[in-house]
Amino acid sequence: MAPAAAKSIIDAAMSARAGNLARIVLPFLPKDGNVLDVGSGTGHNAAALRQSRPDLGFRECDIVDMHVVGGGADLIVDGRLPYDNSTFAAVTLFFMLQYPEDPLPLLREARRVMADGGHVIAAQTVCRGRVGRCALKLHEQVWGPVAYSVARTFRAVPDVSMACLTPRRWFSESEIKALFEAGGLEVRDTVRMTSSAAMYVDTVYLLQ
Ligand SMILES: C[S@@+](CC[C@H](N)C(=O)[O-])C[C@H]1O[C@@H](n2cnc3c(N)ncnc32)[C@H](O)[C@@H]1O
Fold it and tell me: Ramachandran region of residue 20, left (φ > 0), alpha (ψ -120 to 50) or beta?
């Protein structure tokens, strides 16, 4: 396959994934104000949300800038989000809480920059039982690096250190809820993106 064709297919797959997530998250977005996407990756998720809600202001931040769409990421240094308190009507954390050395300070930062009455919207894959945890671990440790290497080979993503894409933990539903609670956030709504009977399930949480 020609590299340009492969790159187009990868771009289309990343946009389709972001569109799917955006459809679920849209009802949780605020009426007005600014939205921050933390751990924004390639920028596709914020781009898909921006397309549906051009009236909202979107900012993105990450520990590296690997954006291929949108205006790029503000850099997070020493775990501090580079914004004033109470800046954002919503803060999104999509499939990224498994990466920081300790996700709790990051959650507290998300809460700090969230305005009064605002929300955090988190998407996370949660596993069921020991077999589910092993299956999720295998999926993230194998599929993640393979998908990134293929995308990088075809220049569909920039070259970044694998250190920021190395998962460190695999959450069950009760573990992720305990983390949210420790961060001072309460679950207000839950949407399963994939079959809840599966060993691991992509789940969106509305938190306040
Ligand atoms: C699997 S990618 C997910 C990207 C995007 N949220 C998505 O759903 O496509 C994980 C992201 O988390 C970011 N990340 C890793 N450690 C982080 C940290 N300590 N603080 C913020 N972002 C981090 C990575 O740089 C990467 O962009």
Answer: alpha
